[in-house]
Amino acid sequence: MFTPILAFTFILLAIAYSPNFVWTENALSDLGIQEGLTAPLFNYGLIVSGILALTFATGLFPLLPKKILGRTGELTYILATLALTAIGVFPENATPMHYYASVMFFFLCPLSMLFITITFAKSGNKKLEIFTLAAH
């Protein structure tokens, strides 16, 4: 649960250290190639967040039923956490790797949450279903 707070904190710090960043003109990934503290804050923040999310996954998975939908949710979540880490490892100027990592993360993360939410709903675990739905 700490991971999104950490990720957003580092992203906001990177924005604060980037005087040229404008929400309507820049992509967040632009922060990963800025000079000074901006790029390290952004990139290392994503790397650490991805590793923490992967660690969270190891505690989450024993709670999921060992059926095809639960296993699919597990796999897509692991891949999403690896993609998040890869966004930080391969900044925007590391083409095409950054593009692939970004597309994978923004595709797999919501997909994994959907699979996991449905899995909890089917298993009757209402508390975890609502928590996962809220985490979207």
Describe the overall structure.
By secondary structure, the chain is mainly alpha-helical. The chain has one domain (2-135). Helix content is 71%, strand content 0%. Helix 2 (38-60) packs antiparallel against helix 3 (68-89) and helix 3 packs antiparallel against helix 4 (97-123). 32% of the residues are buried.
Whole-number count of domains: 1
Provide the β-strand percentage band: under 5%
Distance between the termini: 12 Å
Q: What is the residue-averaged pLDDT?
A: 92
Can you give the helix content as a percent range?
Answer: over 70%
Task: List the total number of helices.
Answer: 5
Which spans have pLDDT < 50 for at least 5 consecutive residues?
Answer: none
Largest sheet: none
**How big is the Rg?**
16 Å
Q: Would you list the SSEs in sequence order as H and E?
A: HHHHH
- Find the structural class using helix and strand composition: mainly alpha
Count of individual beta strands = 0
Query: What is the overall shape?
Result: elongated
Give the tags.
71% helix, 136 residues, elongated, mainly alpha
In short:
The chain is mainly alpha-helical.
Write the layout of secondary structure elements.
Elements: H1 2-16, H2 38-60, H3 68-89, H4 97-123, H5 126-135
Helix pairs in contact: 1-2, 2-3, 3-4, 4-5
